[in-house]
Automatic annotation (TrEMBL):
Keywords: Signal. InterPro entries: OMP/PagP_B-barrel, OMPW. Residues 1-19 form the signal peptide. It comes from the Bacteria. Pfam families: OmpW (PF03922). Transmembrane segments: none annotated. GO terms for cellular component: outer membrane. One of its GO terms (biological process) is transmembrane transport. This is Outer membrane protein.
Length: 217
């Protein structure tokens, strides 16, 4: 009888140890599927333009704005990130036949979806990604010369690299660099000042550098 009782307790003890090992193994294998980051970013255009009739080029200002993004992990290594942010840029046509022309400013909203590969190295998690963006131009102020400036929305590619650094199980720091390919066909109605409507093929192609903090959940 005593041997039977001892055997039962021994089996229960072994079961408990096995269960604890299983739980520890599951904890090691689980990962947070969602991340949200708040970044402060600088948007640095690498602009160029082909301007009809009057020639010249374009100058677009750098912008500094907050940005929010959400990341969903399919596995520990593969994820998709949606970047949301908007920025205002001043625009000027430069070195044209009519001199430099102030074209006011315009707001850009370029929601961007990238697919990423993460490679965890302890608390340090570098990643690379690539995807697409759709840029919406809105709130254009035509400036003192033009009667109206219209920008076409456009699709483009995006590329990124960065890393997360864990501060705790949930919180982490983030550094991120993106190259976003943005192009627009702009139409400048300047009949009152120049007596013409001018079209331009404009490449903006900004480098976006961001630093911020993130939360896993």
């Amino acid at each position: 009888m005593k041997k039977a009782i001892f055997s039962v307790f021994l089996m229960l003890g072994m079961f408990q140890l096995t269960a604890q090992e299983d739980v520890q193994q599951k904890d090691q294998n689980t990962f947070k599927k969602w991340q949200v980051r708040a970044r402060f970013i600088s948007i640095i255009p690498n602009e160029s333009a082909s301007i009809e009739a009057i020639g010249g080029d374009v100058s677009i200002s750098t912008a500094y704005v907050p940005e929010l993004d959400f990341t969903y992990f399919f596995t520990e290594n593969w994820a998709a990130e949606l970047i949301l942010g908007t920025a205002n840029h001043e625009v000027e046509a430069v070195n044209t036949a009519a001199g430099n022309i102030d074209l006011g400013d315009v707001w850009l909203l370029p929601p961007t979806l990238t697919f990423q590969y993460h490679y965890p190295i302890g608390d340090f998690k570098p990643y690379v990604g690539a995807g697409i963006n759709y840029t919406i131009f809105y709130g254009a102020d035509e400036g003192p010369v033009a009667d109206d400036v219209d920008y076409d929305n456009s699709f483009g590619f995006a590329f990124q690299a960065g890393f997360d650094y864990a501060l705790s199980e949930k919180w982490f720091l983030n550094l991120d660099v993106k190259k976003i390919l943005i192009q627009t066909d702009a139409t400048v109605n300047a009949n009152s000042a120049l007596g013409a409507t001018v079209g331009a093929d404009v490449d903006i192609n900004p480098l976006v550098i961001g630093f911020g903090v993130g939360l896993k959940f």
